[in-house]
Predict the 3D structure of the following.
Amino acid sequence: MTFPAPVLTTQQVARYHIDGFIALDALTSPQEVSQIREIYDDLFARQVGREKGDQFDLGGSDEEGVKAKLPQILNPSRYAPELKQMQLYANAQAVVEQLLGPQAKVTGDHAINKPALDGAPTPWHQDEAYWDPSQLYESVSIWIPLQDVTVASGCMQFIPGSNKLDIVEHQSIGGDVRVHGLEVCDPMVDTSHAVACPIPAGGATLHGNRTLHYAGPNRSDQPRRALIIMAGLPSKPYPAPRRFPWNEAKRTAREQRAMAASDKT
Ligand code: NI
């Protein structure tokens, strides 16, 4: 059974480019959402990718045997290739073409599973702050919750127009270089005009590589499962030298596991 890709209105496309984000109520069917949830929970339960540094704690120091604050898997579809066959991925591709043109492609995915009754927010950040500063990006992060999300369970929030900013200053969360996750530490950033996007399971928010975003703590009694599909135009060399010192400063356990794993091969 197929679930047709949403056809964006001219206004939605314009809003994406003006505000830096849009929210959609349905990118796939409820049936497919339950199928994906099963795969998703299994990947976390089996801790796939942990040894390679693909599964780690985004929000804590990630020591062995310590409960992760914010478990994340990079490239879950590498561990469960059936995900890529889902209508969701085809629809993500169709939507990103409507936003950025026919050259745009789905490039990867990740999963962030915020535990139930957890007090940790995902702090304000721009996705590009995590990436290679030598490249110029035009990309979209498609954030899909696998259950309904509200402000209380940690839905996405955005600063309209922040997509027009340059990359602002970031640091590892709490200033702890053992933590993979980043947070904005630029005192000029004003988050008082944030827009929260509560959406149903299988809906999506779409935001650009520079759009400032945040997700609150999960105060619900269920895990807040989010699958994020990355898409965009091919990156180009950045036209000037630039550095992201917050990434050079990082000393994460994930990085060490990734290095140890690549030494073995
Ligand atoms: Ni992000």
In short: Residues 116 and 221 are 5 Å apart (CA to CA). The longest strand covers residues 105-114. Residues 30-45 form the longest helix (16 residues). DSSP finds six helices and 15 strands in the chain.
